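BUG: 3D viewer hangs when loading the predicted structure for this chain

Environment: internal workstation, default settings.
Expected: structure renders.
Actual: progress bar stalls at 90%.

Input used:
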Amino acid sequence: MKDRREFIFRFIVVTGAAVSSVLVLLVFFYILGESLIFFRTVSFPEFLFGSTWSPLSPKPEYSFLPMILATMYISLLATAIASPLSAGCALFLTFNSHKKISRFILSCIDMIAGIPSVIFGFIGLVVLVKFLERHLHMTAGESVLAGSILLSVMLFPYMVTGCAEAFENGKAKYYAASQSLGVSKWYTMRKIILPCASNAIFVNMLLAFSRAIGETMAVMMVTGNSPIFPKLLGRAETIPSLIALEMGTAEYKSIHYSSLYAAGLILIITVFFIQLAAHRLNSAGRRNTL
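C-alpha cells produced before the viewer hung:
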C-alpha cells in the first residue's frame, strides 16, 4: 500500500514537471517564431545598440537599448534598496523576537506578496509620485526612483522569507555552540551567521532581481513610460511596460508587432540566465556547507 502511494505521488510529480517543461518550451518557441520577422528585417547593431524607439515614424527605428537599460537600472536599484532592509528584518525576526511572534510577522509579510501589482501601482501613483513631486521639486514624480522604491517594497516579502530561512539554518547549526562559548549575540550574528548565510542572501538577491525584471503593471504606473535613456529623476520605460502598452495597438504580423515579441524573447533569455546563475551559485553553496 505504501509503495503504491509512493508510486502515485512520484507519477504525479514527474507528470507535473514534464507538462510544465513542455508548456514553457512551447511558449518560448512560439515567441521565437513570432519574433523571426523582426530579426530578419532589423540588424543586430540597430536593435541592440541604437538609441531611438520610434516604430511608427516614416523612418522607423527599433532600438531596445533604452528599455533594456531602464529595466536593468530600476531592477538593480530596487534590489539594492530591498536587500539590506530584508536581511536586517530577517535577522531581527530570527534572533530578537519570540518564535511565535516571528512566525506571525512573517505570515503578515508573506501576505504582502499576494497583493495585486495594480494596487501597488495605484498607491505609488497617489502617494509616492506626489511625495517626490513635492519634496524633490519635480515637475512630474514619475521616474526611475519612484519605480525602484515601489518595486523594492514588492520584493521585500520574497527576500525576507528567503533570508529568514537561511538565518534559521545558520542559527540551528552554530548559535547554541556560540552561546556555550560565551560569544555575544551581536558578534554571532555579524561574524558567524551572516558569513554563513551570505551565499543564500546573494541567491535571494538574484531571484529577486529576476522577479523585478518581469514586473509590469506597478512599474508602468509610476515611471512615465518614455522610451528614452533612463535617469534617476527622469522618466523611463521598461521592456514589460513596452510590451503591455504597445501590443494592443501594433498591426498584426507587422515588424512592430514582431519587435514586441523580440523584446519578450530578450526578457525571457535574460531571466533564464539569471535563474541559471542563481541555481549554480546555490548548488555551489550547498556543496561548500557539506
